[in-house]
Amino acid sequence: MKMMPDDSLVAISVPKYDKRVFMEALHNCIAHQDYTKNSRIIVTEYKDRITFENAGSFFYGKPQEYILGTKTPADYRNPCLARAMSELGMIDTMRYGIYQMNKNQAETYHLLLDYDLSDSSKTIMTLYAFEPNYEYTKKIVNNKNLSFDEIIKLDAEQKENLSKTTVGNSKAGV
């Protein structure tokens, strides 16, 4: 997708989704799945987002702590599997995957990740598609000196505006 910054004569191209974030989210689902529940990992693509659903509650702490980079998990739910995935380069070895995913989202002008923990038997993460018409995107593209805290505030404002206008629910078929 392309967007024209206010201070440029050249459009910027941004992928609909950041591949690194997509893969890290999928690998997190695999590494943190509660396999005692005999459930599937469900990845669903909608017009404007992808959701990743896996069995089990958020393992340690709250998503916001990881988004800010203030929390490091003491362990993985599946340490043997996580170790193997780490050795294969599939998952983050510094245990800051969520923090780095959100930093990548901000650097590529995407909305930050959301977590739905309303059902304690599962975790649902939402990865938003790039949308050049969001006010959030325009502000980030046109102001390169924003701190991560300022980006988090802009993200919350944009999502509040989106909830008022109802985000599209049509599945794209994954």
What does it look like?
By secondary structure, this protein is of the alpha+beta class. The chain has six helices and six strands, in the order E-E-H-E-E-H-H-H-E-E-H-H. The protein has helices at 19-32, 63-67, 79-87, 97-107, 135-142, 148-165; strands at 2-3, 12-13, 42-45, 49-55, 114-116, 122-128. The strands form two sheets. The chain has a four-stranded antiparallel sheet, with helices on one face. Strands 1-2 form a two-stranded antiparallel ribbon.
Helix content, binned percent: 25-40%
Tell the overall outline.
Answer: globular
Query: Per DSSP, what share of the residues sits in E-state strands of 2 or more residues?
Result: 5-15%
State the major sheet: 4 strands, antiparallel
Order of helices and strands: EEHEEHHHEEHH
Number of helices: 6
Distance between the termini: 20 Å
Return the structural class: alpha+beta
How many whole angstroms does the radius of gyration measure?
A: 17 Å
Assembly status: single chain
Uncertain spans, ≥5 residues at pLDDT below 50? 169-174
Compact overview of the structure:
The chain is of the alpha+beta class and 174 residues long. Helix content is 37%, strand content 14%. Helix 1 (19-32) packs antiparallel against helix 4 (97-107) and helix 5 runs antiparallel to helix 6.
Please name the defining characteristics of this protein.
single chain; 174 residues; alpha+beta; four-stranded antiparallel beta sheet; two-stranded antiparallel ribbon; 6 helices; 6 strands; 14% strand; globular; disordered C terminus
